[in-house]
Design goal:
- This protein is mainly β.
- It folds into two domains: 169 residues, no CATH class; 99 residues, Thrombin, subunit H (Beta Barrel).
- It is built from one helix and 19 strands.
- Strands 1, 2, 6, 7, 10 and 19 form a six-stranded antiparallel β-sheet that branches.
């Protein structure tokens, strides 16, 4: 018998677990910087790390209510339909999801309408990501993470059941980290920063408020990042975080972290703390959600 969970709606969960200008890093106090990763991380069996998945919530909004906010109301908190999934590990920690390898295979209502299908007027995929699953939001310490599986349109009138299936590839670490300091980084746009297996590019985005803002843009290897600090030549932290950005172009997801710097700052030290031992965890997922308005 499939386990049943009581939320605001009744949820039936079926889960199948399967095995599943450049700058150079400063050598001190470590030895030689690690070479950039050229292969995918090794895989670890989901059962061996005690990975579990449970429903976290369901949200369905009436189409006429959504229309009050206009055609471009597609922020994840205002989506027409959303199924939240809570992912937990008792040891080690979750650090992200491989969006390129993960895939949403089914998101339909009980009349067969494809809720993941993109409407003609809706071309912005920023909040859905490469996988169609949205972004994995990892809690502090990495013991649990929330995945919001978000539809692009509401279920049909009178719908009572939703069906969701996905092939998830999660990123997992035993928690061991390493620090690399990259000195003499130019704040000029286009500067490449390499810290161990992490490659970033400087983006000097101007927000029009007179502040000196430096962005650090990275791709898939950024999933290893635990923390970034921007320091001056004396090792003093000078980079106040100023938000982040996310973009999807030609099915490639990039993230950018922004930092406020003192005016006229030309060079900085970028200190990157990253997870050393990163593994991939494959987790096929199937959900049947009963809901109604």
């Amino acid at each position: 018998m499939k386990p049943k969970h009581r939320l605001a709606v009744a949820v039936v969960l079926s889960l199948c677990l399967a095995p599943a200008v450049s700058a150079r890093a400063d050598d001190a106090p470590t030895t030689q910087p690690e070479a950039a990763a050229t292969t995918q991380p090794a895989e670890v069996d989901a059962a061996s790390i005690g990975l579990s998945i449970e429903p976290a919530g369901v949200s369905v909004a009436r189409p006429d209510v959504l229309q009050l906010r206009g055609a471009r109301m597609w922020h994840r908190w205002e989506a027409p339909v959303r199924v939240g999934v809570l992912i937990k590990v008792p040891k080690g920690q979750l650090i992200g999801m491989d969006e390129g390898a993960s895939k949403l295979t089914t998101f339909t209502d009980d009349v067969g309408a494809d809720l993941a299908k993109e409407d003609k007027e809706q071309q912005d995929r920023v909040f859905f990501g490469q996988s169609g699953l949205g972004s994995l939001m990892v809690g502090e310490g990495g013991k649990m993470a929330l995945l919001n599986i978000t539809g692009r349109k509401a279920p049909a009138a009178g719908n009572r059941e939703l069906f969701v299936a996905a092939d998830l590839v999660l990123l997992y670490s035993d928690g061991t980290t390493k620090v690399e300091s990259v000195k003499g980084v130019s704040t000029k746009a286009g500067t490449e920063v390499k810290a161990g297996p992490i490659t970033m590019t400087v983006d000097d985005r101007n927000f029009g408020n007179g502040e000196n803002v430096m962005g650090l843009r990275y791709g898939d290897d950024g999933g290893r990042i635990s923390k970034i600090r921007i320091l001056d030549s004396e090792g003093t932290d000078i980079g106040g975080e100023n938000g982040w950005g996310r973009s999807v172009q030609n099915d490639v997801v990039t993230m950018t972290r922004y930092y406020r710097l003192p005016q006229e700052t030309k060079t900085v030290t970028v200190e990157v703390t990253y997870f050393k031992d990163v593994r991939r965890v494959r987790t096929p997922l199937a959900l049947s959600v009963r809901a109604g308005l």
